[in-house]
Amino acid sequence: MFKASPRTDCPATEWNAAADSFPKAWAWHRTELLDARSAWRQTNDASFYISEVSNKGRIVALVPLVIVMPRMLSGWIGGHLESTGGPAIHPDLPQKSMRKVQECILTELDAIAMKHKIRRADFSVAPLSPEIRAIDRPVPNPLCNFDVKDRSTQSWMLPLQPAAGEDGLWQGLEHRARKQVKKAERNGLSVEMISPTAALLDQYYDLHLKTCVRNSLPPHPRDYFQAIFEDVSKSLLCKTCVVSAGKRVISIQNFLVFKNCALYWTVASDDDALQLCGNDYGIWQAIRHFHAAGLDFLECGEAFPGAMQGKQKGLNDFKKSFGGELYPYYRGSIEYRPVLEGILGIMRSLRKSGAAT
User: Fold this and answer.
1) What are the residues whose beta carbons fall under 8 Å from the beta carbon of 156, sequence distance 6 or more?
2) pLDDT in tens, 146-174
3) Which ranges carry the BioF2-like acetyltransferase domain (predicted)?
């Protein structure tokens, strides 16, 4: 018999032990990251786990989950669920038990959706999870067992241990990236790779606010970054690259590190960082650091290879320039209120196209 219980019923040490051992799980399944994500505005944790009652309550599945409510008309529109990392199930379950656990997960998701008037649930599978990294043949979206609509995309992944060593990594950079790194060196920039502490938080958040103004984006709550610079860092899940021009910090980049891989996670910088090539220089020095530390991969972020212009093309070109390869980024969604979600989807498309203005 299998039972669904909220994350609050599970000691953090037991939850994290499962996240550490399940090959389907990555850092997003850890309690520190779930606590940090819950610090976002209009967001509440709804994570749960599945236990095997007949086997001393052994944890057999983790489901990282948050409820995100809209800023307006939440009573009518309802919120949506986000599961970054998706369900992670114990790898040694018999096939029959595996299916029962999947059914238990779906039943609990349905109950949460009904209770909170959820309109859809979005799932993603971490490209850096050991299970995905081990794939050597074509496979369907792992979320297909949960009857999701496929929303898969792709991510830039850089192998950090090429046969030619650090020189191979340098040669793997595109001409644009090598040019930027050399320019940063001429500009006299310096880099320090550290484990972030609360002492750096004020500088980071000041740069974060400047970054948001520059890109016309709403800032994240300070509590979110406080969780990163304190709890996430204390659990050795984060490394930070601090880029300076003289004595002035111009860019701070956070990398999420777990299961011998790293993810280019959050970045905050001032205008001078763009002019002095601080962000490019920081990533290159991080690549060198992670290579020397023996890590296997650096994920540079979601890819947009089909973008021909605009912000997505700029982001894709930047991430691609560090020599990564395209890997699948499996995603999917369940629509609980399809008619409403369809109407909202049309409205979002109209806003993006400008037809609604």
Assistant:
1) 299, 300, 301, 303, 319, 320, 322, 324, 325, 326, 327
2) 989 999 999 999 999 999 999 999 999 99
3) 176-301
